[in-house]
Amino acid sequence: MSIELGRSRSVRRAYGIDDIALVPGSRTVDPAITVTRWSLGGIEREIPIIASAMDGVVDVKQAIALSRLGALGVLNLEGIQTRYDDPAPILDRIARVDGQGFVPLMQELYAAPIKETLIRQRIGEIRAGGGIAAVSTTPAGAIRFGKTVAAAAADLFFVQATVVSTEHIGPDGQDTLDLASFCEAMPMPVILGNCVTYEVCLQLMQAGAAAVMVGIGPGAACTSRGVLGVGIPQATAVADCAAARDDFRRISGRHVPLIADGGIITGGDICKCIACGADAVMIGSPIARASEAPGRGFHWGMATPSPVLPRGTRVRVGSTGSLEQILRGPASLDDGTHNLLGALRTSMGTLGACTLEEMQQVEIMVAPSLLTEGKVYQKAQQLGMGR
Protein backbone atom coordinates (compact mmCIF):
# COMPACT_ATOMS: atom_id res chain seq x y z
CA MET A 1 0.00 0.00 0.00
CA SER A 2 1.41 3.38 -0.99
CA ILE A 3 1.24 6.53 1.11
CA GLU A 4 1.05 10.01 -0.34
CA LEU A 5 4.18 11.87 0.75
CA GLY A 6 3.15 14.98 -1.18
CA ARG A 7 1.37 15.87 -4.40
CA SER A 8 4.29 14.65 -6.48
CA ARG A 9 5.38 11.53 -4.63
CA SER A 10 3.87 8.33 -3.24
CA VAL A 11 5.94 6.13 -0.94
CA ARG A 12 5.88 2.71 0.74
CA ARG A 13 5.85 2.14 4.48
CA ALA A 14 8.81 0.08 5.72
CA TYR A 15 9.31 -1.71 9.04
CA GLY A 16 12.32 -2.37 11.22
CA ILE A 17 13.01 -5.39 13.40
CA ASP A 18 11.58 -3.65 16.48
CA ASP A 19 8.30 -2.94 14.67
CA ILE A 20 7.24 -6.58 14.31
CA ALA A 21 6.26 -9.58 16.44
CA LEU A 22 6.16 -13.31 15.73
CA VAL A 23 2.79 -14.97 16.33
CA PRO A 24 2.49 -18.48 17.87
CA GLY A 25 0.50 -20.98 15.84
CA SER A 26 -1.57 -24.05 16.68
CA ARG A 27 1.34 -26.30 17.64
CA THR A 28 4.57 -26.22 19.61
CA VAL A 29 7.77 -28.22 19.21
CA ASP A 30 10.34 -29.36 21.76
CA PRO A 31 13.35 -27.07 21.17
CA ALA A 32 15.65 -30.09 21.47
CA ILE A 33 14.41 -31.48 18.15
CA THR A 34 14.50 -28.24 16.15
CA VAL A 35 17.02 -28.18 13.29
CA THR A 36 19.02 -25.00 12.75
CA ARG A 37 21.56 -26.31 10.25
CA TRP A 38 22.10 -24.41 7.03
CA SER A 39 24.53 -24.52 4.10
CA LEU A 40 26.66 -21.80 2.52
CA GLY A 41 28.58 -22.65 -0.63
CA GLY A 42 28.45 -26.34 0.23
CA ILE A 43 29.72 -25.75 3.78
CA GLU A 44 27.21 -26.84 6.40
CA ARG A 45 26.94 -25.05 9.75
CA GLU A 46 24.82 -25.79 12.81
CA ILE A 47 24.41 -22.15 13.82
CA PRO A 48 23.00 -19.72 11.21
CA ILE A 49 25.22 -16.91 12.49
CA ILE A 50 28.15 -15.24 10.70
CA ALA A 51 30.47 -12.87 12.56
CA SER A 52 30.98 -9.66 10.59
CA ALA A 53 34.19 -8.89 8.72
CA MET A 54 35.14 -6.10 11.11
CA ASP A 55 38.47 -5.65 12.83
CA GLY A 56 36.98 -5.44 16.32
CA VAL A 57 35.03 -8.67 15.74
CA VAL A 58 37.10 -11.25 13.84
CA ASP A 59 40.79 -12.07 13.80
CA VAL A 60 42.45 -15.41 13.07
CA LYS A 61 41.79 -16.84 16.54
CA GLN A 62 38.15 -15.76 16.46
CA ALA A 63 37.62 -17.25 13.01
CA ILE A 64 38.94 -20.58 14.23
CA ALA A 65 36.87 -20.47 17.43
CA LEU A 66 33.68 -19.56 15.56
CA SER A 67 34.22 -22.50 13.21
CA ARG A 68 34.76 -24.84 16.15
CA LEU A 69 31.53 -23.70 17.79
CA GLY A 70 29.45 -24.33 14.65
CA ALA A 71 29.19 -20.77 13.36
CA LEU A 72 31.34 -18.79 10.91
CA GLY A 73 33.59 -15.73 11.08
CA VAL A 74 34.71 -13.54 8.17
CA LEU A 75 38.14 -11.86 8.16
CA ASN A 76 38.43 -8.35 6.73
CA LEU A 77 41.27 -8.45 4.18
CA GLU A 78 41.43 -4.66 3.97
CA GLY A 79 41.79 -4.08 7.68
CA ILE A 80 44.34 -4.20 10.45
CA GLN A 81 45.08 -7.90 10.05
CA THR A 82 46.59 -7.49 6.58
CA ARG A 83 48.30 -4.14 7.10
CA TYR A 84 50.38 -4.99 10.18
CA ASP A 85 52.48 -8.06 10.94
CA ASP A 86 51.51 -7.70 14.61
CA PRO A 87 48.03 -6.18 14.94
CA ALA A 88 48.01 -6.26 18.76
CA PRO A 89 49.62 -2.84 19.45
CA ILE A 90 47.45 -1.26 16.75
CA LEU A 91 44.29 -2.62 18.35
CA ASP A 92 45.54 -1.37 21.72
CA ARG A 93 45.87 2.16 20.30
CA ILE A 94 42.33 2.05 18.91
CA ALA A 95 40.98 0.95 22.30
CA ARG A 96 42.85 3.73 24.17
CA VAL A 97 42.12 6.76 21.96
CA ASP A 98 39.48 9.25 23.09
CA GLY A 99 36.36 10.07 21.09
CA GLN A 100 37.71 13.19 19.41
CA GLY A 101 40.92 11.51 18.33
CA PHE A 102 39.27 8.37 17.01
CA VAL A 103 38.60 9.30 13.37
CA PRO A 104 42.06 10.86 12.74
CA LEU A 105 43.74 7.85 14.34
CA MET A 106 41.77 5.42 12.21
CA GLN A 107 42.59 7.36 9.05
CA GLU A 108 46.25 7.18 10.01
CA LEU A 109 46.27 3.49 10.88
CA TYR A 110 44.30 2.37 7.83
CA ALA A 111 46.56 4.36 5.49
CA ALA A 112 49.25 1.70 5.91
CA PRO A 113 49.46 -0.47 2.77
CA ILE A 114 47.78 -3.86 2.55
CA LYS A 115 50.38 -6.64 2.24
CA GLU A 116 49.51 -9.53 -0.04
CA THR A 117 51.91 -11.72 1.93
CA LEU A 118 49.73 -11.15 4.99
CA ILE A 119 46.59 -12.05 3.04
CA ARG A 120 48.13 -15.40 2.24
CA GLN A 121 49.47 -15.79 5.77
CA ARG A 122 46.16 -15.06 7.53
CA ILE A 123 44.21 -17.45 5.30
CA GLY A 124 46.84 -20.11 5.94
CA GLU A 125 46.69 -19.54 9.70
CA ILE A 126 42.92 -20.01 9.79
CA ARG A 127 43.12 -23.21 7.77
CA ALA A 128 46.03 -24.53 9.82
CA GLY A 129 43.95 -23.99 12.96
CA GLY A 130 41.09 -26.05 11.57
CA GLY A 131 38.88 -23.05 10.81
CA ILE A 132 36.82 -22.14 7.77
CA ALA A 133 38.76 -19.45 5.89
CA ALA A 134 36.02 -16.96 4.99
CA VAL A 135 37.39 -13.57 3.92
CA SER A 136 36.01 -10.25 2.73
CA THR A 137 37.01 -7.31 0.54
CA THR A 138 35.29 -4.38 -1.11
CA PRO A 139 34.63 -4.65 -4.85
CA ALA A 140 37.80 -2.61 -5.48
CA GLY A 141 39.70 -4.96 -3.20
CA ALA A 142 38.33 -7.95 -5.09
CA ILE A 143 39.89 -6.57 -8.28
CA ARG A 144 43.24 -6.04 -6.53
CA PHE A 145 43.44 -9.16 -4.39
CA GLY A 146 41.15 -11.74 -6.02
CA LYS A 147 44.02 -13.75 -7.51
CA THR A 148 45.86 -13.73 -4.20
CA VAL A 149 42.80 -15.00 -2.35
CA ALA A 150 42.29 -17.70 -4.97
CA ALA A 151 45.93 -18.81 -4.75
CA ALA A 152 45.71 -18.94 -0.95
CA ALA A 153 42.69 -21.28 -1.25
CA ALA A 154 40.21 -19.41 0.93
CA ASP A 155 36.99 -21.34 1.50
CA LEU A 156 34.54 -18.44 0.99
CA PHE A 157 34.96 -14.95 -0.49
CA PHE A 158 32.63 -12.15 0.60
CA VAL A 159 32.54 -9.07 -1.67
CA GLN A 160 30.99 -6.33 0.46
CA ALA A 161 30.20 -2.64 0.19
CA THR A 162 27.51 -0.34 1.58
CA VAL A 163 25.67 -0.99 -1.70
CA VAL A 164 26.69 -3.54 -4.34
CA SER A 165 25.02 -3.64 -7.77
CA THR A 166 25.63 -5.41 -11.04
CA GLU A 167 25.73 -2.09 -12.88
CA HIS A 168 28.35 0.39 -11.65
CA ILE A 169 29.29 3.53 -13.57
CA GLY A 170 32.83 4.64 -12.78
CA PRO A 171 35.24 7.31 -14.05
CA ASP A 172 36.89 6.82 -17.43
CA GLY A 173 39.93 4.60 -17.15
CA GLN A 174 38.97 3.10 -13.79
CA ASP A 175 38.41 -0.65 -13.59
CA THR A 176 35.06 -1.80 -12.26
CA LEU A 177 34.22 -5.25 -11.01
CA ASP A 178 32.16 -7.44 -13.33
CA LEU A 179 30.39 -9.47 -10.66
CA ALA A 180 29.19 -12.24 -12.96
CA SER A 181 32.64 -12.81 -14.44
CA PHE A 182 34.23 -12.64 -11.00
CA CYS A 183 31.85 -15.22 -9.50
CA GLU A 184 32.48 -17.53 -12.45
CA ALA A 185 36.26 -17.15 -12.33
CA MET A 186 36.82 -17.61 -8.60
CA PRO A 187 37.52 -21.19 -7.44
CA MET A 188 35.47 -20.72 -4.25
CA PRO A 189 31.89 -19.54 -3.61
CA VAL A 190 31.44 -15.77 -3.75
CA ILE A 191 28.95 -14.02 -1.47
CA LEU A 192 27.74 -10.58 -2.59
CA GLY A 193 26.25 -7.62 -0.73
CA ASN A 194 24.87 -5.47 0.50
CA CYS A 195 21.46 -4.79 -1.00
CA VAL A 196 17.96 -3.98 0.26
CA THR A 197 15.64 -4.29 -2.74
CA TYR A 198 13.99 -7.10 -4.66
CA GLU A 199 15.44 -6.01 -8.01
CA VAL A 200 19.09 -5.78 -6.94
CA CYS A 201 18.91 -8.97 -4.90
CA LEU A 202 17.57 -10.85 -7.93
CA GLN A 203 20.32 -9.39 -10.14
CA LEU A 204 23.03 -10.46 -7.70
CA MET A 205 21.67 -14.00 -7.67
CA GLN A 206 21.55 -14.03 -11.46
CA ALA A 207 25.19 -12.89 -11.46
CA GLY A 208 26.16 -16.10 -9.66
CA ALA A 209 26.23 -15.13 -5.98
CA ALA A 210 26.51 -18.09 -3.63
CA ALA A 211 24.60 -15.99 -1.09
CA VAL A 212 23.40 -12.40 -0.81
CA MET A 213 23.72 -10.07 2.19
CA VAL A 214 20.85 -7.75 3.03
CA GLY A 215 21.08 -4.54 5.05
CA ILE A 216 22.20 -0.94 4.63
CA GLY A 217 22.92 1.14 7.70
CA PRO A 218 21.27 -0.64 10.66
CA GLY A 219 24.56 -1.74 12.25
CA ALA A 220 25.44 -0.60 15.77
CA ALA A 221 28.52 1.36 14.65
CA CYS A 222 27.21 2.42 11.24
CA THR A 223 26.18 6.02 10.52
CA SER A 224 25.49 5.64 6.78
CA ARG A 225 21.80 6.37 7.24
CA GLY A 226 22.60 9.67 8.91
CA VAL A 227 25.50 10.61 6.65
CA LEU A 228 23.99 9.45 3.35
CA GLY A 229 20.24 9.19 4.07
CA VAL A 230 20.28 5.74 2.46
CA GLY A 231 18.69 2.50 3.67
CA ILE A 232 15.52 0.51 4.25
CA PRO A 233 14.43 -0.75 7.68
CA GLN A 234 15.66 -4.30 8.03
CA ALA A 235 12.42 -6.28 8.35
CA THR A 236 11.07 -4.89 5.08
CA ALA A 237 14.44 -5.22 3.33
CA VAL A 238 14.75 -8.89 4.28
CA ALA A 239 11.16 -9.67 3.28
CA ASP A 240 11.57 -7.97 -0.12
CA CYS A 241 14.83 -9.78 -0.83
CA ALA A 242 13.37 -13.09 0.35
CA ALA A 243 10.73 -12.69 -2.35
CA ALA A 244 13.55 -12.33 -4.89
CA ARG A 245 15.26 -15.42 -3.49
CA ASP A 246 12.07 -17.46 -3.75
CA ASP A 247 11.33 -16.28 -7.29
CA PHE A 248 14.91 -17.05 -8.36
CA ARG A 249 14.62 -20.56 -6.90
CA ARG A 250 11.39 -21.19 -8.82
CA ILE A 251 13.01 -20.06 -12.07
CA SER A 252 16.47 -21.60 -11.69
CA GLY A 253 15.98 -24.47 -9.28
CA ARG A 254 18.89 -23.07 -7.20
CA HIS A 255 18.50 -21.90 -3.62
CA VAL A 256 20.69 -18.89 -2.82
CA PRO A 257 20.86 -18.21 0.93
CA LEU A 258 19.89 -14.77 2.18
CA ILE A 259 21.95 -13.28 5.01
CA ALA A 260 20.43 -10.47 7.09
CA ASP A 261 23.31 -8.16 7.96
CA GLY A 262 23.05 -5.36 10.52
CA GLY A 263 20.84 -4.15 13.34
CA ILE A 264 20.77 -7.57 15.00
CA ILE A 265 21.60 -7.53 18.71
CA THR A 266 19.51 -10.14 20.54
CA GLY A 267 18.25 -13.65 20.01
CA GLY A 268 14.83 -12.19 19.30
CA ASP A 269 16.29 -10.08 16.49
CA ILE A 270 17.77 -13.21 14.91
CA CYS A 271 14.43 -15.03 15.16
CA LYS A 272 12.59 -12.13 13.51
CA CYS A 273 15.07 -11.89 10.63
CA ILE A 274 14.71 -15.59 9.87
CA ALA A 275 10.92 -15.30 10.10
CA CYS A 276 11.11 -12.45 7.55
CA GLY A 277 12.89 -14.82 5.17
CA ALA A 278 16.61 -14.81 6.01
CA ASP A 279 18.51 -18.11 5.97
CA ALA A 280 21.15 -16.76 8.36
CA VAL A 281 22.30 -13.52 9.98
CA MET A 282 25.57 -11.59 10.08
CA ILE A 283 26.26 -9.88 13.40
CA GLY A 284 29.04 -7.64 14.64
CA SER A 285 28.51 -5.96 18.01
CA PRO A 286 27.16 -9.10 19.78
CA ILE A 287 30.37 -10.97 18.88
CA ALA A 288 32.52 -7.92 19.68
CA ARG A 289 31.31 -8.34 23.27
CA ALA A 290 33.08 -11.69 23.59
CA SER A 291 36.04 -11.66 25.96
CA GLU A 292 38.19 -13.12 23.16
CA ALA A 293 37.20 -10.46 20.58
CA PRO A 294 40.09 -8.42 19.12
CA GLY A 295 38.34 -5.07 19.72
CA ARG A 296 39.08 -4.99 23.47
CA GLY A 297 35.43 -4.19 24.24
CA PHE A 298 35.01 -1.79 21.31
CA HIS A 299 33.31 -2.14 17.94
CA TRP A 300 33.68 -0.11 14.75
CA GLY A 301 32.45 -0.47 11.18
CA MET A 302 34.30 -1.23 7.96
CA ALA A 303 33.60 2.21 6.46
CA THR A 304 34.86 4.10 9.52
CA PRO A 305 38.49 4.53 8.32
CA SER A 306 37.50 6.28 5.05
CA PRO A 307 39.99 9.10 4.36
CA VAL A 308 37.29 11.38 2.93
CA LEU A 309 33.91 10.58 4.52
CA PRO A 310 33.93 8.29 7.54
CA ARG A 311 30.57 6.52 7.89
CA GLY A 312 30.72 4.89 11.25
CA THR A 313 31.95 5.35 14.75
CA ARG A 314 33.53 3.37 17.55
CA VAL A 315 31.08 2.17 20.15
CA ARG A 316 31.93 0.69 23.53
CA VAL A 317 30.20 -2.67 23.84
CA GLY A 318 32.17 -4.06 26.76
CA SER A 319 33.13 -7.69 27.34
CA THR A 320 30.17 -9.60 28.73
CA GLY A 321 31.22 -13.25 28.44
CA SER A 322 33.01 -15.84 26.38
CA LEU A 323 32.29 -16.47 22.72
CA GLU A 324 30.81 -19.83 23.68
CA GLN A 325 28.45 -18.18 26.19
CA ILE A 326 27.26 -15.73 23.56
CA LEU A 327 26.63 -18.41 20.94
CA ARG A 328 25.72 -21.50 22.97
CA GLY A 329 25.35 -20.43 26.59
CA PRO A 330 24.92 -20.79 29.42
CA ALA A 331 23.59 -17.26 29.55
CA SER A 332 24.74 -15.03 32.40
CA LEU A 333 22.80 -11.96 31.22
CA ASP A 334 19.05 -11.34 31.07
CA ASP A 335 18.96 -9.10 27.98
CA GLY A 336 18.86 -11.66 25.16
CA THR A 337 22.51 -11.29 24.11
CA HIS A 338 23.75 -14.65 25.46
CA ASN A 339 22.98 -18.15 24.14
CA LEU A 340 21.77 -16.96 20.75
CA LEU A 341 21.41 -20.52 19.47
CA GLY A 342 19.28 -21.45 22.48
CA ALA A 343 17.08 -18.42 21.88
CA LEU A 344 16.56 -19.42 18.25
CA ARG A 345 15.69 -23.02 19.14
CA THR A 346 13.30 -21.96 21.89
CA SER A 347 11.57 -19.47 19.61
CA MET A 348 11.25 -22.09 16.88
CA GLY A 349 9.74 -24.49 19.39
CA THR A 350 7.30 -21.87 20.67
CA LEU A 351 6.24 -21.06 17.11
CA GLY A 352 5.94 -24.70 16.07
CA ALA A 353 8.77 -24.58 13.54
CA CYS A 354 10.97 -27.67 13.27
CA THR A 355 13.30 -26.22 10.64
CA LEU A 356 14.52 -22.84 9.46
CA GLU A 357 12.34 -23.23 6.37
CA GLU A 358 9.29 -23.60 8.60
CA MET A 359 10.47 -20.66 10.69
CA GLN A 360 10.39 -18.55 7.52
CA GLN A 361 6.65 -19.25 7.21
CA VAL A 362 5.46 -18.23 10.69
CA GLU A 363 2.92 -15.45 11.08
CA ILE A 364 4.28 -11.93 11.57
CA MET A 365 2.38 -8.98 13.00
CA VAL A 366 3.20 -5.26 13.03
CA ALA A 367 3.57 -4.53 16.74
CA PRO A 368 5.43 -1.31 17.63
CA SER A 369 4.72 -1.81 21.35
CA LEU A 370 6.20 -5.34 21.48
CA LEU A 371 9.36 -4.32 23.31
CA THR A 372 7.83 -1.68 25.60
CA GLU A 373 4.40 -2.98 26.64
CA GLY A 374 4.38 -3.75 30.37
CA LYS A 375 8.12 -3.17 30.75
CA VAL A 376 7.93 -0.10 33.01
CA TYR A 377 9.93 -1.65 35.85
CA GLN A 378 12.60 -3.10 33.55
CA LYS A 379 13.02 0.28 31.89
CA ALA A 380 13.15 2.18 35.18
CA GLN A 381 15.65 -0.23 36.70
CA GLN A 382 17.68 -0.79 33.49
CA LEU A 383 17.12 -4.56 33.61
CA GLY A 384 16.45 -7.14 30.90
CA MET A 385 14.61 -5.48 28.02
CA GLY A 386 14.97 -2.08 29.71
CA ARG A 387 18.70 -1.84 29.08
From TrEMBL:
Q: Where in this chain does the record put each IMP dehydrogenase/GMP reductase domain?
A: 16-297
* Record GO terms (molecular function): IMP dehydrogenase activity
* Domain of life, per lineage: Bacteria
GO BP terms, alphabetized: GTP biosynthetic process
Q: Name one Pfam family in it.
A: IMPDH
Arranged from A to Z, the UniProt key words for this protein are: NAD, Oxidoreductase
Q: Does the keyword Zinc-finger apply?
A: no
The record's listing under CDD domains reads:
IMPDH
Q: What InterPro entries would the database entry show?
A: Aldolase_TIM, IMP_DH, IMP_DH-rel2, IMP_DH_GMPRt
Q: Record's family?
A: Belongs to the IMPDH/GMPR family.
- This protein is called GuaB3 family IMP dehydrogenase-related protein
Give the species.
Aphanocapsa feldmannii 277cV
